[in-house]
Specification:
Chitinase A, domain 3; Alpha-Beta Plaits; 11 strands; 464 residues; 5-stranded antiparallel beta sheet; 47% helix; alpha+beta; elongated; 3 domains; Trigger factor, domain 2
């Protein structure tokens, strides 16, 4: 008679042993042999008339080993369901597992050993320690507003095409390409088009740019080349976080595609209409208010992104979770589609554990607060995404609930990758909203310069 035993072999690390007698598996072997004989197609015999002895001789050992292993797997699966075991990944064979030679003519007793890593129970200190977390609000200054207005004057002004760079008002159409210290282009690195005024660069960089023509290029690091106030916006354009200090040392090659010179447009109704068509903006005050709100909205979003990054790091590193490291490393080595060497496992383990800790914490918050995403939310988010896309092409006034959008929404959501991305976006928004409700947020008003100087969140794992 089969039986199952379990013993602890480490921190959240268990060994499950399954004992099989021949009475446990031989009925299944006999049944499989008969089924095979019934369906086998062998030259010289009609289908279903192949002698059982011939099937045993030709396929017996293979069927026998398959059924023994299948029986062991079924017993293991049933045991895990009965014990309601919360495990990582799936069970793997132990190093001490005896290697059997399966011989149908000599049925024997088998012992199969599996190891599992069990998910730990844990609490989240961030929700109970009442720690004050700074929630920064960046104040839109008069200088920021003037700077943005001047940018828009250039943007809406008339462009001429001089031969070379001659002053700070020149506009450069450029291509940024990430390079290493040796000046070699980084494989799969950042590559972006941009349009920049020469005045955005540091004085030293501006002097290097003087006299440059179309198709000239120049190499630099972000930190040394851009005005400190403008660097966050440049980094954002390059899909880098303005608060990531190390990213400021990235090096780039900048190819000048075109040198231009803009005659700034005069601030007035003509410019307002050009920047914000059909908004009916007539006075400078109205224009400033709209612009200030846009700038505030942008930096509120940046501040929230920074807050969420900090909360992510705190939850990952300061939540005491006891992980079965020994099991996880073995699982990384032999539990995947291909074998990973000990060196590969060590190189990847920290990143794997970091992500695993976040998965455990986020799953717990989602479960404890019964967070879910409804079909209506999926459809609404998809509809908004579609309308946003059409809005870029002059369709901003389209009816979001028009009948023609229904088929498009259904088609988009039938795409598993698209629907997965939409689901993850919604559940992540709900997750962070829930986290914000459960912690002590302290709003702090700061300048953009102070925000740019804030250190990035770096933590060490909480250990017991």
């Amino acid at each position: 008679m089969s039986n199952v035993s379990q013993e602890n072999i480490g921190l959240n690390h268990e060994k499950i042993t399954i004992f099989l007698s021949k009475d446990d598996y031989m009925p299944a072997v006999e049944k499989a042999l008969k089924q095979y004989a019934k369906n086998a197609t062998i030259p010289g015999f009609r289908k279903g008339m192949v002698p059982l002895g011939m099937v045993k001789k030709m396929y017996g050992h293979s069927i026998y080993s398959d059924e023994v292993l299948r029986q062991a797997g079924t017993i293991l699966e049933n045991y895990l369901q009965e014990t309601k075991a919360e495990i990582f990944g799936r069970p793997i064979q132990t190093i001490t597992q005896k290697q059997y030679r399966f011989d149908m003519n000599n049925p024997e007793e088998f012992e199969f050993e599996f190891e599992i890593g069990t998910k730990p129970n844990f609490d989240i200190p961030l929700f109970t320690n009442n720690e004050a977390i700074d929630n920064y609000k960046i104040k839109v200054s008069e200088a920021m507003l003037q700077e943005e207005m001047e940018k828009l004057q250039y943007k809406s002004g008339n462009m001429t095409d001089p031969e070379f760079v001659s002053g700070e008002d020149n506009v450069l159409n450029v291509v940024f390409e990430e390079i290493d210290e040796q000046g070699t282009v980084v494989e799969n690195g950042i590559k972006k088009d941009n349009s920049l005024l020469v005045k955005y660069f540091t004085p030293a960089m501006q002097s290097q740019l003087m006299g440059k023509k179309n198709n000239d290029s120049i190499e630099f690091s972000l930190r040394d080349s851009f005005d400190e106030k403008l660097l966050p916006a440049i980094m954002k354009d390059l899909d880098l976080s303005p608060t990531d200090d190390s990213a400021k040392d990235k090096r780039f090659s900048m190819l000048i595609v075109k040198v231009g010179l803009v005659e700034k447009m005069e601030i007035g109704p003509e410019m307002f209409e050009k920047i914000y068509p059909n908004r009916g903006i007539e006075t400078t005050e109205e224009f400033r208010n709209v612009l200030e709100n846009e700038i505030q909205h942008y930096w509120n979003s940046e501040s929230r992104t920074r807050l969420h990054n900090e909360l992510f790091e705190k939850l990952v590193h300061e939540t005491p979770i006891q992980l079965p490291m020994q099991f996880l490393k073995r699982f990384m080595s032999v539990g995947g589609e291909k074998y990973a060497s000990p060196e590969e496992v060590e190189a990847e383990y920290d990143g794997f554990e970091h992500q695993l800790r976040w998965q455990l914490v986020s799953d717990k918050i989602i479960h404890d607060n019964q967070l879910a995403v409804t079909n209506e939310e999926m459809e609404q988010a998809t509809r908004m995404q579609i309308m946003s896309y059409f809005g870029q092409y002059g369709g901003a006034s389209l009816d979001m609930n028009a009948e023609w959008t229904d088929k498009l929404v259904s088609k988009q959501l039938a795409d598993k990758k698209f629907s997965g991305d939409v689901y993850n976006k919604i559940i992540t928004d709900k997750l962070f909203y829930q986290i914000e409700q459960q912690i002590n947020l302290l709003e702090k008003e700061i300048t953009l310069e102070e925000f740019a100087q804030l250190p990035s969140s770096r933590h060490h794992h909480h250990t017991h």
